[in-house]
């Protein structure tokens, strides 16, 4: 049996297992439903995706993987963080008084509902991000444009850190949607967060290794492993808020009257 | 589960929103088993807030809620497995069809596929949505949406159905079919039904028991017969077709009749006492013998739930006013 046939069987087994489990695990059912629904909505708003990929494709005009990656990651950090947090901002507050009431009046526990929102929103962002980056790497690999000295380990670290940044913004979006009764307030809160964490560091004189901006500004040194900063500190800085958002969001939602 | 006295039991149930608005005030409620319980009240009386507290969607400020003898909390998913809830103007994922939505709800209840699929088919048939089963719910009328909501309530075969204003916004045909469906569920399928409405005609037609809430306070809890007895008056209302003068004259001559008022085709007849009420009725009907005027309809003084409801609200208002004065003196 060749590699692809084995891979296919393994994937079928994994999906079969998830499908079987999702019938008994409410949390998985809700998460799966959310992912499907959000993808359908994303496809309906195809023009946004198309625009996004047109911008991305323009970045591929160069033959340098580092420059291209830098441009793409810049888009993900400046635009992706904003785009990722907007659907998250309305994912709970937009359903209160409607679908949330219907679901929570059935056999759904509040933690299952909130966690399904966090995980589905994060997974959607993650899938789109991984897909985009996969296309770019695939493109360069296919055309044999990746230099021999290219350090994939360092490269993956940067990609992972940007994924964490996107996850953090998404998590804050979901947290805001548990706090504020109207999606508009959550969007404003996310904009303020984006303004202070990203925009201010871009236009202002301040420098911080913890700002996502520093990742794109220092992509070259990171890939060459000459940037004298421990990447794990940045990873930790971005991971802790995600965990905090999930815990605080769940606690806040437990206090909420529907 | 052993025998329980009340399907729903509340004690001193109170909800104050933002420390400002008292939505429900010291509510003691008992819904006996095997009943269709009508929860009536004017708009803003606290019906939906009470229902949400019964379901654990809202945390009471004080008091307790028990459903099937167990305390209801925000995370009482096990109790809610036995409940079907239809909110006012139910909202569904717009892109879903009834089949997909019912399948999704069935999965949430953890119903195995071999039970879930036949049940969905049966429900789609029984709510008469077979022709629309694959259409998107967002294209449905209010009546069709309500029927999908009722089907979603029934997917887990619940022991208790909580329906919040199920006939609101429905046209007469949709309303009649919803009322029939609820009656069928309550009387023939043995479901306990807790139904909130401010449409008194529906409550009168469907319910065996009734609770009236006004400004967050329960002002009546009992059977439909009991509430009607409360306002039983010694009057009858006749609707006639034809010349009314001779009928009015004949009615005035009946011994125990003390008042006859004519308003268009309706004649209000007052009888002197409750004791003479039953004896006088045959004489009232007798006046139509050999008279060209025809009796179209007859209404006794005790059959109008609307009057009972308004009287109770009026009494509560005066009592509240009196209580206020007494407290201030």
Write the layout of secondary structure elements.
The complex is a heterodimer of chains A (258) and B (329).
Chain A: H1 3-24, H2 26-44, H3 46-59, H4 65-89, H5 99-104, H6 110-142, H7 152-179, H8 183-203, H9 212-217, H10 219-223, H11 231-255
Helix pairs in contact in A: 1-2, 2-6, 4-6, 4-7, 4-8, 6-7, 6-11, 7-8, 7-11
Chain B: E1 8-17, E2 21-31, E3 36-40, H1 47-54, E4 62-67, E5 70-71, H2 77-80, E6 83-86, H3 98-108, H4 113-126, H5 142-154, E7 160-164, H6 172-188, E8 192-197, H7 200-206, E9 209-214, E10 217-223, H8 224-230, E11 235-241, H9 245-252, E12 257-263, E13 266-271, H10 277-286, E14 294-300, H11 305-328
Parallel strand pairs in B: 3-8, 3-9, 6-7, 7-8
Antiparallel strand pairs in B: 1-2, 1-4, 4-5, 9-10, 11-13, 11-14, 12-13
Tell me what the structure shows.
The complex is a heterodimer of chains A (258) and B (329). Chain A is mainly α and 258 residues long. Chain A has one domain (23-255). Chain A has 11 helices and no strands. Chain A has helices spanning 3-24, 26-44, 46-59, 65-89, 99-104, 110-142, 152-179, 183-203, 212-217, 219-223, 231-255. Chain B has 2 domains: 8-229, Rossmann fold (3-Layer(aba) Sandwich), CATH 3.40.50; 233-300, Alpha-Beta Plaits (2-Layer Sandwich), CATH 3.30.70. Helix content of chain B is 37%, strand content 27%. Chain B is built from 11 helices and 14 strands. In chain B, strand 7 (160-164), helix 6 and strand 8 form a beta-alpha-beta unit. In chain B, 38% of the residues are buried. Chains A and B meet through helix 1, helix 2 and helix 5 of A and helix 2 and helix 3 of B.
């Amino acid at each position: 049996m060749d590699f692809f046939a084995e891979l296919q069987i393994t994937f079928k087994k994994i999906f079969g297992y998830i499908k079987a489990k999702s019938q008994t695990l409410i949390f998985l059912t809700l998460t799966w439903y959310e992912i499907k629904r959000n993808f359908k909505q994303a496809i309906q708003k195809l023009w946004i995706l198309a625009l996004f990929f047109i911008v991305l494709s323009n970045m591929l005009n160069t033959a340098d993987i580092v420059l291209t990656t830098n441009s793409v990651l810049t888009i993900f950090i400046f635009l992706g963080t904003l785009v990722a947090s907007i659907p998250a901002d309305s994912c709970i507050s937009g359903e209160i008084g409607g679908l949330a009431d219907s679901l929570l009046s059935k056999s759904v526990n509040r933690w299952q509902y909130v966690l399904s929102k966090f995980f589905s929103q994060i997974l959607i962002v993650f899938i789109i991000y991984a897909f985009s980056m996969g296309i770019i790497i695939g493109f360069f690999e296919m055309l044999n444009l990746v230099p021999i000295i290219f350090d994939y380990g360092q490269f993956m670290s940067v990609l992972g850190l940007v994924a964490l940044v996107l996850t953090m913004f998404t998590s804050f979006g979901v947290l805001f949607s548990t706090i504020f009764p109207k999606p508009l307030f959550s969007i404003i809160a996310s904009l303020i967060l984006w303004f202070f964490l990203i925009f201010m560091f871009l236009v202002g004189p301040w420098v911080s290794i913890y700002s996502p901006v520093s990742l794109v500004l220092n992509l070259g040194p990171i890939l060459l492993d000459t940037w004298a900063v421990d990447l794990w500190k940045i990873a930790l800085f971005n991971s802790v808020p995600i965990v905090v958002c999930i815990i605080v969001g769940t606690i806040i939602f437990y206090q909420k009257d529907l | 589960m052993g025998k329980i006295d009340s399907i729903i039991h509340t004690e001193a149930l109170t909800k104050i929103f933002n420390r400002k608005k008292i939505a429900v005030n010291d509510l003691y409620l008992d819904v006996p088993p095997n009943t269709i319980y009508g929860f009536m009240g004017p708009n803003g009386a606290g019906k939906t807030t009470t229902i949400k507290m019964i379901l654990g969607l809202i945390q009471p400020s004080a008091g307790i809620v028990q459903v099937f003898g167990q305390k209801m909390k925000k995370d009482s998913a096990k109790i809610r497995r036995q409940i079907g809830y239809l909110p006012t103007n139910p909202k569904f994922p717009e892109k879903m069809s009834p089949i997909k939505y019912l399948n999704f709800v069935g999965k949430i209840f953890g119903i195995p596929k071999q039970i879930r699929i036949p049940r969905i088919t049966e429900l789609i048939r029984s709510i008469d949505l077979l022709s629309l089963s694959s259409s998107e719910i967002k294209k449905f009328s209010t009546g069709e949406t309500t029927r999908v909501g009722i089907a979603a309530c029934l997917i887990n075969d619940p022991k208790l159905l909580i329906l919040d204003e199920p006939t609101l916004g429905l046209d007469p045909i949709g309303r009649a079919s919803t009322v029939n469906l609820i009656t069928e569920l309550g009387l023939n399928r043995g479901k306990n039904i807790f139904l909130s409405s401010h449409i008194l005609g529906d409550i009168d037609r469907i319910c065996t028991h009734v609770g009236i809430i006004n400004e967050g306070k329960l002002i009546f809890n009992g059977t439909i017969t009991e509430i009607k007895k409360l306002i039983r008056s010694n009057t009858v209302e006749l609707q006639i077709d034809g010349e009314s003068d001779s009928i009015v004259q004949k009615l005035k001559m009946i011994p125990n009749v003390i008042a006859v008022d004519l308003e268009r085709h309706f004649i209000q007849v007052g009888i002197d006492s409750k004791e003479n009420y039953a004896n006088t009725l045959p004489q009232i009907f007798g006046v139509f013998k050999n008279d060209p005027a025809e009796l179209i309809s007859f209404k006794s003084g005790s059959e109008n739930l609307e009057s009972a409801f308004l009287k109770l609200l009026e009494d509560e208002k005066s009592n509240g006013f009196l209580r206020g004065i007494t407290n201030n003196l």
